[in-house]
Amino acid sequence: MKVRLDQDRCVSSGQCVLNAPAVFDQRDEDGVAVLLVADPDEDQADDVRQAAALCPALAILVEE
Amino acid sequence: MVHDTLAAFPMSRAARCPFDPPPGLHDLRDQARLTRVRLWDGSTPWLVTRHAEQRALLADPRVSSDATRPGYPFPGPARPGADKIGFILMDDPEHARLRRMVTAPFAIRRVEALRPAVQKIVDDLIDDLLAGPKPVDLVEAFALPVPSLVICRLLGVPYADHDLFQSHSRNLISRSVPVEERNASFRALHDYLSRLLEQKVTRPGDDLLSQLVARVEAGELTLADAAGIGVLLLIAGHETTANMIALGTLVLLEQPDQLALLRDGEDPKLVAGAVEELLRFLNITHTGLRRVALADIEIAGVIVRAGEGLIFANDIANRDPDAFPEPAALDLTRDARRHVAFGFGVHQCLGQPLARMELQVVYSTLYRRIPTLRRATGLDDIPFKNDGQVYGVYELPVSW
Ligand code: HEM
Ligand code: SF4
User: Fold this and answer.
1) Nearest CA to ligand 2 atom 8
2) Terminal alpha carbon distance of chain A
3) What whole-number distance in Å separates Cα of residue B391 and Cα of residue B400?
4) Where are the beta strands (DSSP E) in B65-157?
5) Long-range contacts for B373-378 (Cβ within 8 Å, ≥24 apart)?
6) Which residue in B29, B65, B291, B392 has the most C-beta neighbors within 10 A?
7) SS3 string of B308-333?
8) Among B136-145, B171-180, B260-269, where is mean pLDDT lowest?
9) pLDDT digits over A36-64, tens only?
């Protein structure tokens, strides 16, 4: 699985950090999401799919 | 087109079902995914009824929050200038620029760092409840103070002024208060925030308003805009969460098996899931999210024309059987995370991490510490906020 994050679209909702904390973090200055792992392991896959589905700004792109 | 037969919106709930969306809304939902309704001023915007279309359109850049555009479906005669109440009635890029000025304290890590302080606020208020007379109004003594204390601390607003900002907020989000009075309340809140911001120029604190003052001094923001953002955060920060606390407690008292899950469970995951389910089930923003189309949009077999209004009834979308099996059941163990109680798209609730954390602390503490908590009056005697833009109860007398 490959993950891409478009920080320009991010609205700092925190949904990705809540649902996939091993893969996403937030910047201190404005809460914009940061991608920690671009090619997460299989055991993270469900969390990442969940985060992408919940991202209100459609900023997370998952390629299986 | 003849619009005489269109359903009026908003609709009334059934008297015996204070926790469910209006029956008429269920009917519309079953008839069409998008349908026209008639508003108080005779305008006939689209009502979007289904979960899938709500998510698609709320995240569509051709759908605008700009209330200065013709066709925007106002909930009533009060017409706040889009530039006056923070960024909620603006579009990107200006919306994004202003929103990002205040996102930092709502990041998950920052909100988690506040959890012990919120736990203490909740515990202290429960100590006071237990030491005080009963029955007591849970709204006044608990549901309103918890989020008010928290947002005051975060913004740097003195809690001693809570009578002032709570009463003006109540006016502003009521549908029954006359326009002049609501406008006066808005001006009073705006003036109040302006004065606070001016005080923070000389005496800055470790709070969000002081950070806005720094933006004003750097020339990135006018004082009026900063005050508008302050008004938005202050109102949204306490009224919504307060209603979730009181209404959530009431529905749990009606469904003791569900309440028992929170009272007897230890698992933070269960508590977090319960909060999502209560947000879905109660969906307190019951007059719908308002937008206007910027271009012709083809969706679900209809064409929404540029300039037409759109209303997203998120209460009925949260009861969509395609998104949530057995949607009419309150089931704290279900996965309700896809709810749209915080909206969707770039305007999705800024305060959601804070609201979640506050509700997790409240729901996991109140029923454990007062296990015999009960309604002190009949359900029929509880005054529901049917006239509010945000649903809830005006009073909830409880005993134990
Ligand atoms: C359970 C409690 C809450 C609920 C149900 C709720 C619901 C919502 C909803 C539905 C929206 C979207 C409006 C739209 O798209 O037009 C929204 C936006 C917003 N909420 Fe909340 N909210 C809650 C708590 C809070 C708290 C605690 C704060 C602040 C501390 C807050 C601040 C905001 C702000 C600033 C916006 C505007 C965001 C934007 O336009 O970008 N909310 N909220
Ligand atoms: S879920 Fe989307 S909008 Fe929210 S913080 Fe993550 S990337 Fe940003």
Assistant:
1) A10
2) 5
3) 25
4) 136-137
5) B373/B249, B373/B253, B373/B398, B373/B399, B373/B400, B374/B253, B374/B398, B374/B399, B374/B400, B375/B250, B375/B253, B376/B134, B376/B135, B377/B135
6) B291
7) CEEEECHHHHCCCCCCCCCCCCCCCC
8) B171-180
9) 999 999 999 999 999 999 999 999 999 98
Task: Quickly tell me which residue has 């915080």 as its tokens.
Answer: B342
Which amino acid belongs to residue B42?
Answer: G
Ligand nearest to the CA of B314: 1
> Taking CA atoms, what residue in B is nearest to A16?
B108
Q: What is the pLDDT of residues B188-234, one digit of tens each?
A: 999 999 999 999 999 999 999 999 999 999 999 999 999 999 999 99
Q: Which residues of B make CB contacts under 8 Å with A?
A: 58-59, 96, 99-100, 103-104, 106-111, 337-338, 342-350, 352-353, 356
User: Closest ligand 1 atom, CA of B291?
Assistant: 16
- Digit-coded pLDDT (tens) for B314-323: 999 999 999 9
User: Which residue ranges form the domains of chain A, and what is each CATH number?
Assistant: 2-63 (3.30.70.20)
Q: Across residues A15-28, what is the average pLDDT? A: 97
Residue in B237, B249, B177, B173 with CA at minimum distance from that of residue B19: B249
User: Which one of 1.10.10.10, 2.40.50.180, 3.40.960.10, 1.10.630.10 gives the CATH number of domain B2-399?
Assistant: 1.10.630.10
The answer to whether residue A5 scores a pLDDT higher than 90 is yes
Q: Is the ipTM of this complex over 0.95?
A: yes
Per-residue model confidence (pLDDT) at position B3 = 52
